[in-house]
């Protein structure tokens, strides 16, 4: 797809470039906030799986607007990411206790008010496997969250609404007072992704955070059906202004309210993909010369 | 009311395959396991193992070494696993058994299973099962009861994408775990429960997650495949942390590998399997199966066959013997020809040093040979490798020197001699073999090239003598004999090297020569060239001399230019296309180069760049030769290039005494003669015949040949056990009930529109009738035009990306006349492809037909709704109305006749709104389109003025709309028509509204809403009469809900009647077919297709 074409087809991609966000996903967090006010009163926030950093950008910008106190944002990712003003970066694994300790130490021993995670694996196309891996990523994020989030705090994470999503709802409900499933208007209608907005962190009385053992997803059985009307139900909320832009809509290049069209390069170019070597080989005509 | 949902047909990605016996294959799609026979290519039996999980792997129990030979029972136990479930399945190998697969037990694990393995306890010899799970744990369980007996964890708790086991007994069990952090961890399970088993060996190097692991039989080597598109081999014995081999070749991610004694086979996202030679790790073969994803691969115990499961649901069995057949490693595979004892043919004094000088393969089982003693011998091979000989000629001129060349089919043989004479033989003419000889030059003939002209019986002969003179002559083989005329001398300027190859094509008007110094000479042929008869003394007159127009020095570097082929240009660059051609050359630099040759009218002086050369023609025209492409075929030499049929090029390469024959249109060598061939410097020939390919070469003074018979090729052909449907997402399906069968149309991301016949009585018989690819972008919707009378001709409308709208004319006559062999043909009948913007997508269409007209309503991604009228013959679309007022992408659309010649159009958008239009004005009007076209340029009405109402129905996208007339209270409410509208939203809710259609409004009478009908986006809703609603969602649930009576609403709710799991991942469409009263079929499609029967009582 050409650059012009992508601009026409994906208005949020274009807006992200125009407004200087590192990725279009920035709008998703902004729209979740429009509905749930998750930034209210937040002074310490953690962005897990932060690269390329658009959510950290949103946090650093929006939190300071909301709060009179000094706000702190910690971004965690396995990969290094270009520095952002007002954001402390930790290059680390979210399944490690040391990472949790590092986060707390950045907050001078205090716990976070908000933990967000927009992480997702590279999908394989086997939907059950992709959904499982995404669930494990959320559970890993939840596990570290139980170490760093203050009671009453908020956790927002990307989920895939696939066949086993109810299991995940059940798990999250044991840790939070309210759980909503949010679909920002900047997330495409056709996309399987949505966001869980878990508020009022309230772990079970006997729960002891433990990084050594991964949180496992709960098994489904008769008391926890995945089929039928008795399953765990999590309210769905579409967020973002209806008068705003539609992620599925094909827009002309000249849109009113946005101003004259100007073609722009992406704010952040893609990180090094795993198939980099294969791509290099392809460019050097390798594949034409072998079988 | 009761209702049952029964799955009748399912096809999706084949995520696991295994051989139970050498020719019995198990394949898994969704939770279903199917048993196939390779020999009969029939489905033997199938069974659903998991209701809810997809099968990711199958492991057949093998009798361990040291146990009694052969199986004691007729059955085999198979370990099946997928997500968190595993099961023991019994497969009966006895052919007479009626039920061949039986599920013995199904168990659940706490975590996702990545690998499962049969293992024994050394002490008790009890049969156990080892499961590796996604958090790097291993569970050893009792195979009978499924109880966990032993549980261990590795010290490193990374999430795994892949795992593999090695070992027969629990105490020696080794695990290879492929992590999300691109590493492979090896650890021993041991006999103690432990949470911290240390990593024994860590294999680093992959640049992406590991998707597949497989051990070699002896456990010394491990193969890993990854997101980084490489296959790596690791030596475990040497404790090296570096891979011993890293190979690339797949164009996308690699999912699985299988490690065999001689090969490693990999299955990839690119839709192919690749076969790698285990010793050298060189690519041995590529098997192309489908457009995307080969998920699974397995070999039989004999390692002769490999089964592969595709993303399109296909199961193909490939032959490893075919791979071996083309790799000739041993002398015993060759047919070596020795001369018979001299007494049998040499009446004179026997020579001491008699040997074969030259040879020409002239037919599948015949060759001509020249001998040192001056004989030309004819040899015929019989079936049993015995040979019969006859002497054709004995001439002292042939003693000690003879150069042999022949046409690629052997119908003309030329033998060049030391005295400058050439003997021509036409061995295919009835014997005595026709022959002609002439002295054409004064010095010895060094090179001969026989070219087929494209006309049979007409050949171009190029001869080069030791002085470097190149003579072009023409040979015609006619019933009476051989006619031979000289045409021209091709001049090779000084310093350009000796010519070794040449090509002439009178039709194209070009000739080309390649030389030892790598120079390419191009000659423009005059239109008329006199032919000068050649007598025994040579040409009667001096042939004209042609001077090259282009001299391209070092076209292949300093290396010899070994072969040249002239082709007609595929692309027409100028109007003077007749004078264009393409030259393909090969060289000892291992490359194939392509040059385009064209003539431009004006004199041009171009700066000769690296890739362009110009030459002047006499008539003020310029010849421009430009290098189009160059590709390296081998590390060694490309020695030959042939065009067997138009555009079908073959090349012969030599590298370290290895000869490879390659079909340049494919990527796989047809034949590879390993170190047994004697190298490029010796004589060799490739003969193509209808029987197959025969390669001959001189080896140790004898003629050695290898034949790849057509028969052998076909006996090694792959076998399709299951034909695939579509390897990319299916976006739309629609169906017609025809004479008890269903005609199903489907399309989607792969842009193909496909027609299937589906018979309820024979579920394995989903038969592809037609497939057309005309859409250039993903097809999102397909609808059959309602047929007003029973007719053989049906019309299908499809639409999708790029604003493309198409009508297909389908002829289904045989559905009625011959149901068992029914067929359908499909042709494109009308289309709209021009659009304001190529990025615009048609999201959905609805077709409404009245007595007077047929209208197609389209939902567009720019928020518009457009109405197209079809002409009487469905041969043209014309846009009649548009509503551009929408601010959100329109996702779904439906239309219905509501009586009194009134028609209603409804559409749903991403903002959750449903809009209603009264389109009666358009459905009742018949305007003659042909007339319109001429008189009025374009008159498109504003549909917005017909808008009746906009309802807020869902929180976000209205993915699907189904509408029908209410059957209650005589269809009317307050005198107005009443419709039932069902919608499914991205918000997971299902809404049914009863709507009264006023002249100016669409008013909601009542609403039934199930806010939490599904856990994910609802992708399809249909109404089964006015009683039951059926919905399907991304959560892979298909649900039936009872609708309350109209007058009971709004106090009632949708009541769940039945719910089942669909094996189709990411379902995107639901289509309803009514079979008979209270009997329905529901087609769910997405990644795969599943058909359910819904029977209500």
Automatic annotation (TrEMBL), chain A:
Give binding positions for S-adenosyl-L-methionine.
53, 55, 77, 93, 118
Q: Name one Pfam family in it.
A: FtsJ
Give the Ribosomal RNA methyltransferase FtsJ domain ranges.
21-201
InterPro entries per the record?
RNA_methyltr_E_TRM7, RNA_methyltr_RlmE, RNA_MeTrfase_FtsJ_dom, rRNA-MeTfrase_E, SAM-dependent_MTases_sf
Its localization reads:
Cytoplasm; Nucleus
Q: Name one GO cellular component term.
A: cytoplasm
Q: Which domain of life is it from?
A: Eukaryota
Catalytic site positions: 158
CDD domains given for it? AdoMet_MTases
Keywords from the named record? Cytoplasm, Methyltransferase, S-adenosyl-L-methionine, Transferase, tRNA processing
- Enzyme Commission number(s) from the entry: 2.1.1.205
Report if keyword Cytoplasm is assigned: yes
Reaction(s) catalysed by this chain's protein: cytidine(32)/guanosine(34) in tRNA + 2 S-adenosyl-L-methionine = 2'-O-methylcytidine(32)/2'-O-methylguanosine(34) in tRNA + 2 S-adenosyl-L-homocysteine + 2 H(+)
Q: Which BP terms in the Gene Ontology apply to this protein?
A: cytoplasmic translation; tRNA nucleoside ribose methylation
Q: Name one GO molecular function term.
A: tRNA (guanosine(34)-2'-O)-methyltransferase activity
Kind of enzyme, top EC level?
transferase
What is the recorded function of this protein according to its Swiss-Prot or TrEMBL entry? Methylates the 2'-O-ribose of nucleotides at positions 32 and 34 of the tRNA anticodon loop of substrate tRNAs.
Spell out the family assignment given in the record's similarity comment.
Belongs to the class I-like SAM-binding methyltransferase superfamily. RNA methyltransferase RlmE family. TRM7 subfamily.
User: Which protein, by its recorded name, is this?
Assistant: Putative tRNA (cytidine(32)/guanosine(34)-2'-O)-methyltransferase
The organism is Coemansia reversa (strain ATCC 12441 / NRRL 1564)
Automatic annotation (TrEMBL), chain B:
Record's keyword annotation contains Nucleotide-binding: no
Q: Which parts are the WD repeats?
A: 203-244, 247-286
Q: Does the keyword Cytoplasm apply?
A: yes
Could you list this entry's UniProt keywords, alphabetically sorted: Cytoplasm, Repeat, tRNA processing, WD repeat
GO annotation, biological process: tRNA methylation
Query: Where is it predominantly found?
Result: cytoplasm
Q: Which GO terms describe its cellular component?
A: cytoplasm
The cellular location(s) given in this protein's UniProt record come to: Cytoplasm
Q: What is this protein called?
A: WD40 repeat-like protein
Q: Which family does it belong to?
A: Belongs to the WD repeat WDR6 family.
């Amino acid at each position: 797809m050409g650059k012009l074409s992508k601009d026409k087809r994906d208005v949020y991609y274009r807006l992200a470039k125009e407004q200087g966000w590192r990725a279009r996903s920035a709008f998703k967090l902004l729209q979740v906030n429009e509905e749930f006010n998750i930034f209210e009163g937040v002074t310490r926030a953690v962005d897990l799986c932060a690269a390329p950093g658009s959510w950290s950008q949103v946090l650093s910008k929006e939190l300071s607007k909301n709060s009179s106190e000094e706000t702190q944002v910690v971004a965690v990712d396995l990969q290094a990411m270009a520095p952002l003003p007002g954001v402390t970066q930790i290059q680390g694994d979210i399944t490690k206790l040391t990472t949790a300790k590092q986060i707390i130490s950045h907050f001078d021993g205090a716990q976070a008010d908000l933990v967000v995670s927009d992480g997702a694996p590279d999908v394989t196309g086997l939907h059950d496997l992709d959904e499982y891996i995404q669930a494990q990523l959320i559970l890993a994020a939840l596990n570290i969250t139980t170490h760093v989030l203050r009671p009453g705090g908020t956790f927002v994470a990307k989920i895939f609404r696939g066949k086993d999503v109810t299991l995940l709802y059940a798990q999250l409900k044991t840790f939070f007072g309210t759980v909503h499933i949010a679909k920002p208007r900047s997330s495409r209608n056709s996309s399987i992704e949505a966001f869980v907005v878990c508020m009022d962190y309230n772990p079970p009385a006997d729960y002891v955070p433990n990084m050594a053992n991964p949180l496992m997803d709960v098994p489904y059985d008769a008391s926890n059906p995945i089929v039928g009307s008795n399953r765990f139900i999590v309210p769905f909320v579409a967020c973002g202004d209806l008068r705003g832009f539609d992620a599925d809509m094909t827009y002309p290049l000249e849109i009113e309210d946005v101003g004259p069209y100007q073609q722009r390069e992406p704010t952040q170019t893609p990180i090094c993909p795993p198939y980099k070597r294969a791509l290099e080989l392809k460019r050097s005509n390798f594949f034409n010369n072998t079988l | 009311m009761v209702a049952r949902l029964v799955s009748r047909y399912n096809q999706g990605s084949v995520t696991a395959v295994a051989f139970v016996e050498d020719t019995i294959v198990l394949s898994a799609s969704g939770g279903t396991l199917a048993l196939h026979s390779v020999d009969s290519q029939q489905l033997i039996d199938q069974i659903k193992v998991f209701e809810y999980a997809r099968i990711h792997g199958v492991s057949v129990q093998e009798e361990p070494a040291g146990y009694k030979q052969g199986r004691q029972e007729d059955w085999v136990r198979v370990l099946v696993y997928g997500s968190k479930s595993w099961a023991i399945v019994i497969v009966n190998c006895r052919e007479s058994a009626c039920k061949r697969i039986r599920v013995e037990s199904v168990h659940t694990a706490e975590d996702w299973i990545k690998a499962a393995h049969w293992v024994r306890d050394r002490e008790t010899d009890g049969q156990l099962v080892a499961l590796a799970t996604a958090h790097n744990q291993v569970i050893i369980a009792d195979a009978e009861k499924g109880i966990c007996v032993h549980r261990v964890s590795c010290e490193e708790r990374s999430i795994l994408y892949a795992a593999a086991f090695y070992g027969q007994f629990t105490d020696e069990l080794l695990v290879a775990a492929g992590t999300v952090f691109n590493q492979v961890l090896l650890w021993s399970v041991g006999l103690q429960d432990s949470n911290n088993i240390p990593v024994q060996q860590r294999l680093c190097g992959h640049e992406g997650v590991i998707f597949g692991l497989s051990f070699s039989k002896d456990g010394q080597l491990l193969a890993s495949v990854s997101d980084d598109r490489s296959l790596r081999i690791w030596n475990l014995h040497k404790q090296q942390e570096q891979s011993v081999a890293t190979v690339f070749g797949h164009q996308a991610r690699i999912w699985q590998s299988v490690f065999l004694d001689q090969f490693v086979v990999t299955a990839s996202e690119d839709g192919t399997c690749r076969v790698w030679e285990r010793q050298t790790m060189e690519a041995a073969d590529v098997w192309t199966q489908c457009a995307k994803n080969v998920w699974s691969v397995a070999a039989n115990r004999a390692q002769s066959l490999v089964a592969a499961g595709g993303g399109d649901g296909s199961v193909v069995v490939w032959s490893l013997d075919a791979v071996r057949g083309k790799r000739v490693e041993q002398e015993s595979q060759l047919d070596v020809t020795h001369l018979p004892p001299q007494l049998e043919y040499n009446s004179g004094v026997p020579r001491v040093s008699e040997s074969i000088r030259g040879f020409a393969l002239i037919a599948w089982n015949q060759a001509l040979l020249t001998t040192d003693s001056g004989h030309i011998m004819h040899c015929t091979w019989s079936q049993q490798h015995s040979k019969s000989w006859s002497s054709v000629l004995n001439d002292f001129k042939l003693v000690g020197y003879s150069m042999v060349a022949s046409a690629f089919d052997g119908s003309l043989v030329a033998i060049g001699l030391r005295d400058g004479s050439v003997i021509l033989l036409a061995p295919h003419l009835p014997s005595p073999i026709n022959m002609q000889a002439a002295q054409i030059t004064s010095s010895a003939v060094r090179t001969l090239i026989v070219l087929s002209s494209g006309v049979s019986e007409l050949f171009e002969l190029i001869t080069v003598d030791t002085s470097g003179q190149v003579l072009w002559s023409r040979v015609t083989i006619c019933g009476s004999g051989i006619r031979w005329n000289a045409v021209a001398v091709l001049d090779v300027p000084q310093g350009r090297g000796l010519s070794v190859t040449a090509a002439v094509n009178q039709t194209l008007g070009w000739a080309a020569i390649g030389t030892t110094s790598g120079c390419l000479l191009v000659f423009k042929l005059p239109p008329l060239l006199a032919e000068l008869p050649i007598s025994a003394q040579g040409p009667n007159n001096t042939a004209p001399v042609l001077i090259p127009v282009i001299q391209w020095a070092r076209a292949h570097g300093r290396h010899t230019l070994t072969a040249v082929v002239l082709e007609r240009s595929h692309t027409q660059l100028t109007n003077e296309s007749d004078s264009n051609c393409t030259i393909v050359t090969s060289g000892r630099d291992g490359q194939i180069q392509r040059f385009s040759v064209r003539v431009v009218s004006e004199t041009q002086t171009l700066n000769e760049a690296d890739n362009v050369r110009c030459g002047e023609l006499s008539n003020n025209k310029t010849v421009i030769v430009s290098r189009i492409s160059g590709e390296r075929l081998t590390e060694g030499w490309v020695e030959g290039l042939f065009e067997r049929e138009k555009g079908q090029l073959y090349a012969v390469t030599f590298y370290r005494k290895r000869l490879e024959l390659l079909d340049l249109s494919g990527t796989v060598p047809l034949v590879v003669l390993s170190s047994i061939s004697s190298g490029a410097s010796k004589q060799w020939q490739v003969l193509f015949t209808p029987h197959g390919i025969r390669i001959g070469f001189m080896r140790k003074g004898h003629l050695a040949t290898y034949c790849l018979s057509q028969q052998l090729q076909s006996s090694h052909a792959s076998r399709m056990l299951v034909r695939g449907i579509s390897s990319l997402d299916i976006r739309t399906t629609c169906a017609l009930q025809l004479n008890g069968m269903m005609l199903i149309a489907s399309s989607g991301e792969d842009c193909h529109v496909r027609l299937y016949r589906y018979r309820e009585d024979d579920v394995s018989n989903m038969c592809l009738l037609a497939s057309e690819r005309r859409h250039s972008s993903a097809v999102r919707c397909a609808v059959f035009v309602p047929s007003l009378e029973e007719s053989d001709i049906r019309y299908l409308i499809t639409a999708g990306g790029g604003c493309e709208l198409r009508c297909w004319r389908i002829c289904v006559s045989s559905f009625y006349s011959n149901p068992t062999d029914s067929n359908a043909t499909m042709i494109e009948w009308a289309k709209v492809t021009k659009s304001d913007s190529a990025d615009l997508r048609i999201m959905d269409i609805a077709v409404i037909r009245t007595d007077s007209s047929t209208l197609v309503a389209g939902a567009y991604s720019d928020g518009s709704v457009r109405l197209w009228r079809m002409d009487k013959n469905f041969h043209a679309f014309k846009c009649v109305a548009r509503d551009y007022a929408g601010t959100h992408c329109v996702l779904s659309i439906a239309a219905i006749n509501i009586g009194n010649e009134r028609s209603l159009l409804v559409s749903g958008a991403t903002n959750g709104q449903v809009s209603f239009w009264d389109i009666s004005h358009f459905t009742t009007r018949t305007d003659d389109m042909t007339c319109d076209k001429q008189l009025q340029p374009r008159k498109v009405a504003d549909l917005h003025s017909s808008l009746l109402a906009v309802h807020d129905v869902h929180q976000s996208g209205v993915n699907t709309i189904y509408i029908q007339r209410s059957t209650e209270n005589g269809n009317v409410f307050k005198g107005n028509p009443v419709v039932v509208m069902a919608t499914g939203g991205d918000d997971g809710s299902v809404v049914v509204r009863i709507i009264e259609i006023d002249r100016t409004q669409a008013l909601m009478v009542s609403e039934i809403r199930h806010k939490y009908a599904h856990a994910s986006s609802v992708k399809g809703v249909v109404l089964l009469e006015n009683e039951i609603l059926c919905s399907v969602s991304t959560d892979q649930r298909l649900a039936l809900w009872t609708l309350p009576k109209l007058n009971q609403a709004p106090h009632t709710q949708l009541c769940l009647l039945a719910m089942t799991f669909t094996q189709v991942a990411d379902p995107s469409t639901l289509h309803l077919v009514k079979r008979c009263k209270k009997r329905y079929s529901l087609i769910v499609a997405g990644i795969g297709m599943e058909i359910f029967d819904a029977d209500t009582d």
